[in-house]
Amino acid sequence: MRSLGFVSQEIVLVMNRTLISLNIVLLFSLATFVHAEQRGSEQTNSAPNICRQQTLTDGFFGLDDTLADTGIELELSTAQIYQQNVRGGISTHRKTGRFSGSYDLELSADLEKLLRIQGARLYMLTEGSFSEGINGPSVGSFFGVNDDAAGDRSIDITELWYEQSWFEQTLRIRLGKIDLTGGFEHHGCPVAFDCSAYANDENAQFLNSALVNNPAIPFPDNGLAIAAYYSPVDLWYISAAIADDQADARETGFRTAFNDEDYFFYIFETGITPELNSANGPLQGAYRAGLWYDPQPKERFSDGITCRDDTGFYISFDQMLCRENDNSEDTQGLAAFGRYGWADSKVNELARFWSAGVQYQGLIPDRDDDVLALGFAQGIFSDDAADFTDDYESTLEIYYRADISPWLALSPSAQYIANPGGDKSVGDAVVLGIRALMRF
């Protein structure tokens, strides 16, 4: 008689296969439908059709407009990714993890509208995913070639926080279950750290983890934290956070934050957000520097002695370089970004890290929202760590995001990974993939 655990694993496997099949059918059906709608709209001057809608369901069939009046915003999106290692790495034949996907359900409440609490906001993010991706079985990259792959998780509340702002949002305090890297909010990145306008979102920008955040910063998992942002004058801000260092995003955070020994991660960042002058208007930029402190015990590679009070620093920037026109709300043009991070090589496998890249929005005429981007990242491993036979791993990624409609974007991408995992015995890998992002 088979155990309940074995039966449950079979059920999960069947559900995942079914979900994969449904997503493939949905994607191709939607693409075909959009194409047909576009042709129909060209032939007849009909009313606005599905191609012009901001979301597939047109705001949940009108529910969004009703909720917006009360201060509530609801968003549902899904990312479906297919990747294959076509050269080098661990294996080019294993099919495990080639297809992966996730969904995000976001709920944001303006408590000033809802409860008349001035400057208050409540946010919840629920996520689900399937597949660990191809990195483990096929590539072996230290960074990871698919930052969206999060394993088989049906539903997790990964963020749930309350934010209070004062003085026209120049001072903000956020409390709850927080993603410290989380989400880009203008160039100041309020209440988040190591942000980038052009390399911070695995669903819409780069897929390789080294081009999403700085891996030299030992960010804890999403968990209980308190974070603050303050901009005393225009173009300058400071921010800081204290977070549960043992957090597990799959849990509420209370068990890891207040059980046995308690360790808290500290991070501080300051930056400027200048606007450079140009013939076509201001060029927005952001320049940041930060320090972090990690008190968790770590073994020193050289002698195995346990050390505490680990520290490091980072810098980053993103800057628009030129604009196509003088419309202040039009973001077409060329932009660049860069990151650098340092950590103590005595206790951290990754001692130094840097990345840089460029993005052009609207390169092809009449494709104003499409984005072409190229990024390079390199991590230098600790000489004392025994797990590496080479000093570094490097990654080059290029992607093109084509907006088929306001609610559907397709992004083919290619990655070249040199020295995957810092292992000389593993050949340089080439990973090809395509991502579909749909907003419901």
Task: Please write out the topology.
Elements: H1 4-43, H2 58-70, E1 72-89, E2 99-110, H3 111-114, E3 120-130, H4 135-139, E4 153-166, E5 171-178, E6 223-233, E7 236-244, H5 254-257, E8 264-272, E9 275-276, E10 283-294, E11 298-299, E12 306-307, E13 310-323, E14 333-343, E15 350-361, E16 371-381, E17 392-405, E18 408-418, E19 427-439
Antiparallel strand pairs: 1-2, 1-19, 2-3, 3-4, 4-5, 5-6, 6-7, 7-8, 8-10, 9-10, 10-13, 11-12, 13-14, 14-15, 15-16, 16-17, 17-18, 18-19
Structure notes:
- It is a single chain.
- With 440 residues, this protein is an alpha+beta fold.
- It folds into 2 domains: 1-51; 53-439, Porin (Beta Barrel).
- 15% of the residues lie in helices and 45% in strands.
- The chain has 5 helices and 19 strands.
- The strands form 2 sheets. A 16-stranded antiparallel β-barrel has the order 1-2-3-4-5-6-7-8-10-13-14-15-16-17-18-19. A two-stranded antiparallel ribbon has the order 11-12.
